[in-house]
Amino acid sequence: AGLTRHPATARGVLHDFGPYPGMVLGEGRVVGEIVPLDPARLAALDALEQAAPFGAPGGAYRRTVVTVTLGDGSN
Predict the structure, then answer these.
(1) Quick one: which of 24, 23, 28 has its CA closest to 11?
(2) CA–CA separation, 13 and 29 (whole Å)
(3) Can you say how many angstroms the Cα of residue 31 is from the centroid of all Cα atoms in its chain?
(4) How many CB atoms sit inside 10 A of residue 21's CB?
(5) How far apart, in whole angstroms, are the C-alpha atoms of residue 29 and residue 14?
(6) Rounded to whole angstroms, how far apart are CA atoms 7 and 24?
(7) Is the pLDDT of residue 73 over 70?
């Protein structure tokens, strides 16, 4: 609640892995949104999603920095 969301796209393909989707970077376009988060909230999400802290390898998810295109066409 109270988070700003920005429509965005990234280059890649979205895959159906059952209850959770997964994105593979590459050709194609994945439509989503950008939600700016402060470090404390990001750490809480890492814990909730069983991801290694701050995008480190390991855990159920791996956070990766990618270039996105915002709804206004900027990157």
Answers:
(1) 28
(2) 6
(3) 11
(4) 11
(5) 8
(6) 19
(7) yes
| Contact in structure between 55 and 44 (CB atoms under 8 Å) | no
Kind plus residue range of the DSSP H or E element containing 27: strand 20-34
pLDDT in tens, 4-62: 999 999 999 999 988 888 898 999 999 999 999 898 988 888 888 888 776 677 776 77
The model's pTM is: 0.72
**Interatomic CA distance for residues 29 and 7, integer angstroms:** 13
- Cβ proximity of 4 and 36 under 8 Å: yes
Query: Which residue from 6, 64, 9 is spatially nearest to 31, judged by alpha carbons?
Result: 9
